[in-house]
Amino acid sequence: MAEHTSEKVPTVVADRVDIVYRVNGTGAGRGSATAALNRILRRGQAEKAAGVRRVHAVKKVSFVAYKGEAIGLIGTNGSGKSTLLKAVAGLLPVESGHIYTDGQPSLLGVNAALMNDLTGERNVFLGGLAMGMSREQVKERYQDIVDFSGINEKGDFITLPMRTYSSGMAARLRFSIAAAKDHDVLLIDEALATGDRSFQRRSEERIRELRKRAGTVFLVSHNNKSIRDTCERVLWLERGELRMDGPTEEVMKEYEAFTGERKPAAAKA
Amino acid sequence: MSQVLHTPPPTRAPADGDLAALAARHGLSVSGARPSLPQYVRQLWARRHFISAFATAKLTAQYSQAKLGQVWQVMTPLLNAAVYYFIFGVLLGTKQNVADYVPFLVTGIFVWTFTQSSIMAGTRAISGNLGLVRALHFPRAALPISFALQQLQQLLFSMCALAVILLCFGVPVAASWLLAVPALVLQFTFNAGVSMVMARLGAKTPDIAQLMPFVLRTWMYVSGVMWSIDSIAKHDDLPRIVTVLLQINPAAVYIDLMRFALIDSFQAHQLPPHVWAAAVGWALLAGIGGFIYFWKAEETYGRG
């Protein structure tokens, strides 16, 4: 994205972002009471001695995302994709650098749960209200949300508690609720990998719609096909570093060569 | 570990101030920054429907797995009252000192339970709802406030049971029952404030939730739920400071206010001194202080 022409409006700017996790209960005396006490007493100083390990998950990543773009995030497991998304959503603090956003990005992950004891119906209302929709807006879109999720295709499931849903059904309902609102920036973590083929098609369509309404979409996925189908730009993260940033085909070719190269090596070992 | 086959192609690294300037030019804000206090209040007000819907949903979900369902809303407080009556009224014989002991005890238990459950729920408000916090963006204070509201709704159920008990024990309906409304408003504000403090502490150190039942039980025993602070203060030769501490205790203040409102034999001279001032003071202190304390860590909830 070299041409910073003036008509393109940035929605997310990441400026040399570093993210570091601190993990308690490692190192000497792991998990023991004395180690825990030590950690509490000596907070801040001598983290290492107190058994805190630092994991540098994202290293000096910079990029600019523009309005109307759908950006794929790829990389092997543990390369920092989800971490970066959480930071863009404002849910993880950055160690150094800055992330600037237009409005409040919404993170849509499949494992983030709604309330299991409540019916799907109640969850639709709560989710809508929590996202800042008014009661009238939720009522207006309620039917669309339920239809889109396809929860009721196999009977009246929406009036059952969420704990009775299969994981796929719950993930579909979550996606439907979050996608009901027009987000300035929508961050999707592997959402398209769940659900059956017909739901995947519907969600791809919905993402295209969201983009038309001038939002920006980030998509983390290991499914190269859904990245190709939805995104025209791809960021490739490897070991926390931004390895490539460019048009989908270009980056995907490199990425497939990279992951393809590993297969014979692994087979030999 | 054979992943680093070739070094990444140097990405067009922009000059230092470049990206920050670009962001500033288009009016982008830092992601996840804490809003200013007036902004936060406005955001919270905009989510008021969420707060009430969440509270009601939680309340109905509570007994959704029980066969008797919503009947437990009234049954639970009644059974609680029965247990305490058996232990303190029958076995220990505390009732000799107090007129209308059953209404006295039951009122105390219901009002105390309101504070106790609000604080317990508040402690887990963030740490127990990480899924919601990490998935959706809303002012986090909505959670502890909503839990306090849920407990208020629960108390209103209990109050219906209480009214029946009062009438059964021959306490007359009086205009003073209306005083219960301002007392409840003040107590709710106090509870919500303490919940917010506990929510922040509980979000940072979940271990606190393990400790709270013991703290709360101690607090209950010194709050005059099953005995009369007034008669202790009069008859025993306690040091003055202990008497004052017992009387200024917010839980005792709200419990005695409710007794004064509902029970005709509970007279004004049995109330702690300056009781309304204390009730308003505690409500304002906890409500405003708790809100600001909670807001100060707004951007950290749900992380890590």
UniProtKB/TrEMBL annotation, chain B:
<comment type="similarity">
    <text>Belongs to the ABC-2 integral membrane protein family.</text>
</comment>
<protein>
    <recommendedName>
        <fullName>Transport permease protein</fullName>
    </recommendedName>
</protein>
<feature type="transmembrane region" description="Helical">
    <location>
        <begin position="98"/>
        <end position="115"/>
    </location>
</feature>
<keyword id="KW-0812">Transmembrane</keyword>
<keyword id="KW-1003">Cell membrane</keyword>
<keyword id="KW-1133">Transmembrane helix</keyword>
<feature type="transmembrane region" description="Helical">
    <location>
        <begin position="241"/>
        <end position="262"/>
    </location>
</feature>
<keyword id="KW-0997">Cell inner membrane</keyword>
<feature type="domain" description="ABC transmembrane type-2">
    <location>
        <begin position="68"/>
        <end position="297"/>
    </location>
</feature>
<keyword id="KW-0813">Transport</keyword>
<feature type="transmembrane region" description="Helical">
    <location>
        <begin position="71"/>
        <end position="92"/>
    </location>
</feature>
<keyword id="KW-0472">Membrane</keyword>
<feature type="transmembrane region" description="Helical">
    <location>
        <begin position="274"/>
        <end position="295"/>
    </location>
</feature>
<dbReference type="InterPro" id="IPR013525">
    <property type="entry name" value="ABC2_TM"/>
</dbReference>
<dbReference type="Pfam" id="PF01061">
    <property type="entry name" value="ABC2_membrane"/>
</dbReference>
<dbReference type="InterPro" id="IPR047817">
    <property type="entry name" value="ABC2_TM_bact-type"/>
</dbReference>
<feature type="transmembrane region" description="Helical">
    <location>
        <begin position="155"/>
        <end position="173"/>
    </location>
</feature>
